[in-house]
Amino acid sequence: MLNLPFGHVRFCDGISRRSVLKVGALSFGALNLTLADVLRSEAAAKKQDPAARTGHKAVINIFLGGGPPHQDMWDIKTEAPKEIRGEFEPIRTNVTGIQIGETFKRIAGMADKFAFIRSLVGARGGHDAFQCTTGWPQQSLAPMGGRPSIGSTVMKLQGSVDPSVPAFVGLAEKTAHTPWSDAGQTGFLGATYGPFKPSGPDMANMVLNAANKDHLPDRKSLLAGFDALKRTADYQGTLNAADAATERAFDVLTSSKLVDALDLSKESAKTRARYGDGKPYQFQYDGAPTVNEHLLLARRLVEAGARVVTLSYGRWDSHGKNFDLVRDHGTKLDQCLTALVEDLEVRGMLDDVTVIAWGEFGRTPQVNKDAGRDHWPQVSCAILAGGGMRTGQVIGSTDRTGGSAKDRPVGFGDVFATLYQNLGLNPETTTVMDPTGRPQHLAEGKALPELV
C-alpha cells in the first residue's frame, strides 16, 4: 500500500527511506514487482527504438467473452431455415449493400465508420481471451512462457507516451471464470510488461486508507500532502540515492494525471448518458458485466497516454436464451461502441486509435432446444473502427448457414498484423527477442490490405 506520512511531514528514525519508496510498489501483473521496474523497462525500450515513439497510436481491444453469435450480429442468414437463421431480421445500414442484425440500429446508422469481418477462422475453441489478446494459439512457445499479448509487446517496443500513465491498461472486471477477465498475458517477456489494472490491487496503492482520509478530507489537501512530502524528501536528500526510474515511480504516484483519467465525474452528464452505464447487468453468471463506462474510460486513458487498453464486455456464452441475450448485450454494445467511435472522431483521435470488438469463437448455425447456440470455432466475426483504416465495408463471407468461411478467410494473426501496423510497428520486420535470444515476429499473418 501507499505509505505516506501526513500532517507535519518529516523524516525521522520512524520513517526509513525504504518506507517512503514503497509508493512505487504497485502490482503490474506480478507480486513484488515495483512501478520502478516497469519504468526501467520502458526506458530501455525507448533507448532501443526511439523512432517508434514519434506518434501516439493506440488500440482499444474489447473482448466479448463467451463467443458472440455471428449469425445474430453482423452476418444475418436471410436465406437459411428459421432454426438456423433465428429470430432477428437484417436491417439496412448507411452503406449501400451492407446489412446487419436489427439489434444494432446505431451501428447501422454509422456503418461507414466500421469494418465487419465475417470470416474469422483459426479459433482453438478455448473459453479464454488468449487469441484475442495475442493473435497466437496458447501452445505457441509455451515452454518459454508463451506469446506476449499486444499490450505487453507494445509496452516493450514503444514504452510509455507519458511517464505518469502506463502504456498498457487492463480494465476487465474480475470474473468467476477467470480467463474471461484476462487483460493480456506477458508471455516470455516477463512480468515487468504486465498491464496496469485499476480495478485490482494497483489502484488500492493509489488511494488513501480510511485513517488517512480522516486527516485529508479533500483532494486539495491530498495534493498538498504529496507536495509537502516531495519537498521534504528533496530537502533531506532522501531520494538522492534512488535511481531515475524510482524517482519517476514516485512522480507517477504523486501526479494526478492517471487518477484524473480514471475519474468519470470529469465528463459531462451528456457524454456519460451517450455511453450509458450498461445496467442492469443481465446474463452475467460467471462472466463480465456489460460496463458501458469502461469504453469511456478507455478513451480517457488513451487520451492521457495509454497505448493499449483492453476490456471484457459481457458474457456471450449463449447455450440458452441466445436471442434474449443478444437483445440485452447487443443493444448496450450498440450504444457504447457508437458513442466511443463518435467521441474519438469529435476529438480528432479516430485515425490514431483502432477499436476492435470480438470473441474467442462463434456459435452454432443450428439453434438448440433451449433457444441457444453452442460453441462453434469454425468461424466467427469481428467489428473494427478507426486507426486510419478504410471502413464502411464487409470482409469475407460465410456459407448459407453461417457454418464456415465461404471466401476471404481471415486469421487471428492477420487481424493482429493489422493492429500492429496501425500502431506504427511493421509486423513483417519488427521482432521481439525471446529468452533464448531468438527474434520472434509479432504476428503470424499479414495486415489486411482491404483495411490498411
TrEMBL record:
It comes from the Bacteria. It comes from Frigoriglobus tundricola. InterPro entries: Alkaline_phosphatase_core_sf, DUF1501, TAT_signal. Coiled coil: none annotated. Residues 428-452 are annotated as: Disordered. This is Uncharacterized DUF1501 protein, type 2.
